[in-house]
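During the second year of the project, the team shifted from modelling isolated chains to modelling whole assemblies. The rationale, set out in the original proposal, was that interfaces cannot be judged from single-chain predictions alone. As a representative example for this report, we include one of the complexes processed in the last quarter. Its constituent sequences, exactly as entered into the pipeline, are reproduced here:
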Amino acid sequence: MYYISTNREELELYAMVVESGEMYDGIFTVKWANIIEHKDKGVFAIMKHDKYPATMDEVQDLTGWFESDLI
Amino acid sequence: MTGILDEYPGAAAAYSLRLLNTDYTGDSIVVRRASDNATQIIGFVDGELDTDTLNTFCTGTNGFVTTWYDQSGNGYDVTQTTASRQPKIFDSANGIVLENGKPTIEFDGSKTFTTTATISNASDYYMFYVRNKTVAETGYLLHSETGQLIIEVFEYAAYLDPVNSIEGTGILEGHKLVHFELNSTTGGKVYENSINTQTGLNYSQTAISSRTAIGGIYAGEGDFIGNIQELIIYNTNQSSNRTGIETNINDFYSIY
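Output from the structure prediction step:
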């Protein structure tokens, strides 16, 4: 599951909440997730962490989001 | 006990959950457990993954692989430092992820290992790997940015930058030992469980370098869905060794 938003900063904040809560070691694991941008719709997504629910919209997967889907 | 790389040395890179080379004194993987994000290096016992240590470390939580060590001696370890993209090896309910009774690494479509190392600047490659693709026509088992070489991608066996296009037909899902012979003189061949299933594929490649990923692409999309147990990449001609290498792998994994 992914949270999606047109506001990238909202997703960056979500990542910070997860990383603050999980306290990764900074060696083998440095962050929770990458923010992914839809190839042409101006929408962003981040992987949901089940321990950290948010009020953003959710999608099951990101089919159709990437240029490489066209290969 | 001898390892496959004792008998067939010279791999450019080699990743496995079993010991491939008796001269290799390192470990197999690093595992992060979800409960507290602690990490544990997991090595080998009697040539196989140290499952006792893995069980003790992960019992009751999920375990994810952060590092898969290269056993070739070249040090091309692949890693994943983003938690949500680390492949799973231990399930909180079911224990160690297994394939045919042997540990395996689970890629669910959003996981990859990556490296920015130049694994090889050779043109020809002989790859052997054990995987169970569980969803048909998913992609990328291996991706190297230089030349855009992709092994297993959607409906194709492999893909290159269109100038050097190698396509073939997609390899079906299931637990398989797959061998790619990528020879710029004779073309590309695919063997599945030691049977030659595709031949004469147009192939011209330059290197495995820049940004390389296992289980997806470096940038993070188009990911493989299934399990991977072993991947050995040679950059020297292994045609005469092919059946021996395949026999060694199958003797361990009992695939066919």
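The mean pLDDT of chain B is 93. Chain B touches chain A through 24 residues (CB under 8 Å).
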